Automatic annotation (TrEMBL):
<dbReference type="GO" id="GO:0000026">
    <property type="term" value="F:alpha-1,2-mannosyltransferase activity"/>
</dbReference>
<dbReference type="GO" id="GO:0000032">
    <property type="term" value="P:cell wall mannoprotein biosynthetic process"/>
</dbReference>
<dbReference type="GO" id="GO:0016020">
    <property type="term" value="C:membrane"/>
</dbReference>
<keyword id="KW-0808">Transferase</keyword>
<comment type="similarity">
    <text>Belongs to the glycosyltransferase 15 family.</text>
</comment>
<feature type="active site" description="Nucleophile">
    <location>
        <position position="253"/>
    </location>
</feature>
<keyword id="KW-0328">Glycosyltransferase</keyword>
<dbReference type="GO" id="GO:0006487">
    <property type="term" value="P:protein N-linked glycosylation"/>
</dbReference>
<protein>
    <submittedName>
        <fullName>Nucleotide-diphospho-sugar transferase</fullName>
    </submittedName>
</protein>
<dbReference type="GO" id="GO:0005794">
    <property type="term" value="C:Golgi apparatus"/>
</dbReference>
Amino acid sequence: AVRQPTRNLDEPFYTSCQEPAVDAPRENAAIVMLVRNSELEGALKTVHSLERHFNRWFHYPMVFLNDEPFSYDFQRAMNESTSGGARFELIPKEEWSFPEWMDERAATKSIAAQGRAGIMYAGMESYHHMCRFYSGKFYTLEALRDYKWYWRIEPDVDFYCSISYDPFVEMARRDKVYGFTISLIEGADTCPTLFRQISDWKEKHGYRTTELWKAMVSPSWVPWPFRSMMSWFRARDSKGDSWSLCHYWSNFEIADLDFFRGQDYQGLFNHLDRTGGFYYERWGDAAVHSLALGMLLDPEKVHHFEDLGYRHDFFFQCPANAQGGQRWESQVLGSDPTYTSWSPERPGGIGCRCECDGAVTRNMGN
Ligand code: GDP
Ligand code: MN
């Protein structure tokens, strides 16, 4: 059932430039990047951009994560580039590998076949480990245990506008759980059974569903193999909800770690992990996060940072272009979030000019 958006569901935190409150209290937060040594150049580009447009006033620490030890050059470059300190963390092997029960030979074969089938990135074993990691294990890392909030960044990102307020403080003040910039459509071939698995978990745990519906759609007298086959083709769950493949693009996220560390989310992740879908299919962490948020949270807990100029790959959001464009309304499981502002209908190209830049730079005597 599609829930109607209420008024003022998600206003921008500020609509004008702020004088950065450099002495105000901070939240317990870290900026986090998973990255390979070989991506140093792109990683520096992101860090420089975020420092210039935000962190030179706010000085949040940056935590770099890697499945291999960081090189001396990487660490030196980041120590020189971060204003709030840098930490370098090695991800434990068990959190970056096949689940122990999995038949690795079968999984490796499946990954090769997915690659031959042309499913995006699906032929790379490391990409599957990355998606599984970011879907669940990331949140329970020892290295992040003492933080309440994270801001995820990636190599090769541009921030175009000055972020002249503290987004962590505003998220906390307004009781938000998850913030995003861009939403996209997932490739259906990466996740043929993801929605069905999530809806199975949902029904098992009684989320927004009724016994009557359950009995009608998946009657218990049908033997299991046939029920399973029926549900494989199920594009809708027993409540009539379906998934449009829309999701929040997860290379940018500002979110509450406690939500993702909590019993509900981790229970869902463990359920998904046990199905093997992170390897026998190529489920992306963005899709997993988005579906979980849609199912477990009220829509007003999700914030669209429409005021941030942001680019990664070919997709960007420019607040100057967004004027008169569609506003994000709500996403609950089964409803369509509208696109944010990457669409080609909005001209302007990648180079977004933001008024904040000039104003803040002037005010900071720079
Ligand atoms: P895309 O955004 O889906 O194209 O995927 P990316 O290649 O950008 O990967 C997402 C994030 O995971 C980026 O921050 C990468 O640096 C990181 N990443 C991907 N694969 C690996 C890996 O094998 N090792 C490490 N350390 N980081 C990885
Ligand atoms: Mn990326």
